[in-house]
Amino acid sequence: MEIVSFHWYDDSGRATGEGEVKNLTARSLDKLKATMELYDKNGGYLTSGSAMIDERSLPPEHMSLFKISAKSNPKMHQASVDFSVGGERLRTFYAEAD
């Protein structure tokens, strides 16, 4: 999986993460779930949220948007995102800048 874009923000009591992901595997991925974890400035875990990506099935080399929501915490400082199918966590890379 390649994270093409990802940003997060505090939206009236909800932490919202949005982005786009690309399937780098050789197979179509059905019911792909995105999970966002939020951390404080020292890297301490605060909370998480998850959601299915926009596309029901993501063929190889295709991209899809995703949007995740979690309960906000005033100590939020950084976020991460990863992806899984049927509980299997997929290896994820951030896209490199051109």
Features:
single chain; 98 residues; mainly beta; Immunoglobulin-like; four-stranded mixed beta sheet; four-stranded antiparallel beta sheet; 10 strands
What does this structure look like?
The chain has 98 residues and is mainly beta. Helix content is 0%, strand content 61%. The chain has no helices and ten strands. The radius of gyration is 13 Å and the shape is elongated. 18% of the residues are buried. The model has no long low-confidence stretch (mean pLDDT 91).
Describe the strand arrangement of the main beta sheet, using strand numbers: 7-2-1-10
Question: What's the shape?
Answer: elongated
According to CATH, what is the topology? Immunoglobulin-like
Strand and helix order: EEEEEEEEEE
Helix content: under 10%
Radius of gyration: 13 Å
How many strand units? Answer: 10
Return the structural class: mainly beta
Distance between the termini: 18 Å
Tell me which CATH architecture applies here: Sandwich
Domain tally: 1
Q: What's the mean pLDDT score?
A: 91
**What fraction strand?**
over 45%
| Count of discrete alpha- or pi-helical segments spanning 4 or more residues | 0
**Low-confidence regions:** none
Q: Characterize the biggest β-sheet.
A: 4 strands, mixed
CATH class division:
Mainly Beta
